[in-house]
TrEMBL record:
PANTHER family: METHANETHIOL OXIDASE (PTHR23300). The keyword Phosphoprotein does not apply. Pfam families: SBP56 (PF05694). Belongs to the selenium-binding protein family. SUPFAM superfamilies: 3-carboxy-cis,cis-mucoante lactonizing enzyme. GO terms for molecular function: selenium binding. This is Selenium-binding protein 1-like. InterPro entries: Se-bd (IPR008826). Keywords: Selenium.
Amino acid sequence: MACQEVGPGYKSPLDAMRNAPREKIVYVPCIRRNTATTGPDYLATVDIDPHSKNYCKVIHRLDMPYLGDELHHTGWNACSSCYDDPTKKRNRLVMPSLMSTRIYIVDTDTDPVQPKIYKIVEPEEVYQKTGLGNPHTAHCLANGQVMISCLGDPKGNAKGGFVILDGCCDFAVQGNWEKPGNTTEFGYDFWYQPKFNVMISSQWGTPKVLMNGFNPEDYEKGHYGHSINVWDWDNHILKQTIDLGKVEGAIPLEVRFMHNPDRPEGFVGCALSTNVFRFYRTERVQ
């Protein structure tokens, strides 16, 4: 929940754990793809108030207007990155669609229990302004923008990059976050640590290959990544690509820094192996 006298979110995860009220509802993206049930993806509102008669029940469903979107890692328009800015408010949920490249903006402020679609960013706008497709993970930034990682180009070929949306006003696509010539072979998740001027991004696979499910032969053919990417956060430049080892079956997926914002290390978990890799940034931004 937001601290409105300051800005959205809290100054640290520890502060949130100590001072945040218990959540009473959560939003869960529900995906229908390659299933026996035909229908659109939807956003479920789940009651998690232990004192409610509807505890642990879905109390609302917001259906998407199209089939085959495959909603993925959602994010807020504003969060603790904007803690020092009282003009910001966490009131829109950003929902990228991995396969359709639509980006749904959902109003969670007017009626939190029954959210409504506020805007749809159509795939053509993403294609034309960024040369990217297949958006995956959305994170809000301290400047009011929303950053979304992508897995491919408009034709479903592998291409890692990042889309920037205006998170304050109309959620228009503003362009790429990365500077020209800094796209990566594959894309997936990302996490940034501005106090150490670093962002880590991971790699999954080629969208048009993985869309129908994982085939081990596609991994052997090079359609999946096995490296993590190290970025200069301030300058939007790819500084290093670290190969985690194809032989070990390391497809790096989720990236997380430590909860303490003053700690420089983080972790990335991998598919096809039990490995969890630890990364460490030694230089602190003054």
